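RECORD TYPE: protein structure
NAME: BMC domain-containing protein
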Amino acid sequence: MDAYNAQTSRQNILRDSALGLVSTRSFPAIVGTADMMLKSAGVHLVGYEKIGSGHCTAIVRGAIADVRLAVEAGEQTAKQFDQFVSSLVIPRPFPNLEVVLPINSRLSAITEDGTYSRLSNQAVGLVETRGFPAMVGAADAMLKAADVQLAAYEKIGSGLCTAIIRGSVANVAVAVEAGMYEAERIGELNAVMVIPRPLDELEQTLPVANCWLEQRQPVRLPLNIKEPVAEAELLQLPDLSTLPVKIQEES
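PREDICTED:
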């Protein structure tokens, strides 16, 4: 009976939910678009799909009305960056669509991840270049310009790669500006983005280098164990029959 109720509840949730997709031609643009989608409506960010040639798609899930509102906000944001490609809202997607596409499995992996980053709750800066040398030079300039940490880098095809830094809002802003100038000096700058206060769901979808990830460890409480008592030595008693016995006669 419980299994039937759980299945019925899941079917009701799927019947009233929707998928929203917004595609851009830049990784910084898709991260900024996803940030705006999360902050404009009550949706969940499933993750990103990168299909090459610089095309990235943010996928969100939620109630139909929320998803429509989030996709509209994401589309407007992507157009402001001049990186918009397309958008889509799918009300009540069929289960077969979810099985084939990396939607539910990716959402489960995000929520069940046992690791966390020491860079969480910090501002995010992204500098995207066309060409790896320009990205490395921009990353070096950003690290030298302000107190920031290089969290990871992302490749999306067509020679586009993005350096991702973390730090305080002021330091990230200074570092990104320095990275922009260095990228333009070396090669081609494609896009930049600064996200002051990323939400937790956005945090979980951003790439982070393994050196910044920590495995959650169980709490180990000290145990008050008494020192073991030394085993007592056995003493051998003398044989009483061999001892002289003096018997006092009765008077």
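COMMENT: The mean pLDDT is 82.
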